[in-house]
């Protein structure tokens, strides 16, 4: 199998890279409507988890570069600039604003950069495993797709999106579990409150009725004694019969 000359490969990649840069340049000056469409396109829920992707900046961009891009983009999608589509513009504006707040904060920006680093390490590991497989099959001379810098960059990009998605799913899972735990705790508290309220009400009613029971018993006892007294006082001995002879 004949191999493509190195110079031909380099020329091909240079052409491709130039095309990619032209696309990025074109996207960077998208119209407000196009930017709104980009931020709300199908699958945007996962794309927009990556703040660098939202603001269309490289992960190694300086904070000042990120800030300039944020300002330009926030103006483009601002609802006041898109009165004919203000509702969707508001959604896009909130996405842009949230991404800036993530990258503006040193701690959260570092976490995002850590995601990129992990994505690169996982991609490198995947490539190494693929290279070992090709070597075992005697196909190492063919090379692997990720040897192409553009395809390597795309592989890192895909892995980055996957990691952001995994983080979001984990966050949602923890949030749901926390909500369920709080709900169970609140239900237990309500049940306990209702039980205490029932016991308190029962004790109150019992105490209020206790005197009535005592009074009733005293009345009963008093009535019984009066009846016995009347019986004794009203007792008439039998008349003696005359003795017969």
UniProtKB/TrEMBL annotation:
Biased region (Basic and acidic residues) positions are: 175-189
Cited Pfam families: DnaJ
**What are the boundaries of the region Disordered?**
127-146, 175-196, 208-245
Tell me which InterPro entries the record gives. Answer: DnaJ_domain (IPR001623), DNAJC8 (IPR042858), J_dom_sf (IPR036869)
UniProt cross-references to SMART domains, sorted A to Z: DnaJ (SM00271)
Q: Residue limits of the J domain? A: 50-117
Q: Which residues form the signal peptide?
A: none
Designated name of the protein: J domain-containing protein
Organism per entry = Iphiclides podalirius
């Amino acid at each position: 199998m004949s191999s493509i000359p190195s110079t031909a490969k380099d020329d091909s990649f240079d052409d491709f890279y130039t095309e990619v840069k032209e696309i990025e340049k074109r996207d960077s000056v998208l119209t407000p409507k196009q930017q709104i469409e980009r931020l709300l396109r199908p699958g945007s829920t996962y794309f927009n988890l990556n703040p660098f992707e939202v603001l269309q900046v490289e992960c190694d961009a300086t904070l000042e570069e990120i800030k300039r891009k944020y300002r330009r983009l926030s103006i483009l999608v601002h609802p006041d600039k898109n009165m004919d589509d203000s509702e969707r513009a508001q959604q896009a504006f909130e996405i842009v604003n949230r991404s800036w707040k993530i990258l503006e904060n040193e701690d959260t920006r570092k976490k995002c950069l850590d995601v990129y680093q992990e994505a690169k390490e996982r991609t490198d590991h995947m490539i190494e495993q693929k290279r070992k497989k090709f070597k075992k099959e005697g196909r190492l001379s063919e090379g692997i797709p990720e040897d192409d810098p553009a395809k390597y960059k795309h592989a890192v990009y895909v892995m980055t999106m996957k990691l952001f998605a995994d983080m979001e799913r984990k966050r949602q899972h923890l949030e749901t579990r926390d909500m369920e735990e709080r709900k169970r705790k609140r239900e237990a508290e309500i049940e306990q409150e209702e039980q205490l309220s029932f016991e308190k009400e029962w004790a109150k009613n019992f105490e209020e009725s206790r005197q009535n029971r005592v009074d009733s018993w005293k009345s009963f006892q008093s009535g019984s004694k009066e009846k016995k007294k009347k019986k004794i006082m009203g007792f008439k001995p039998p008349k003696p019969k005359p003795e017969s002879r």
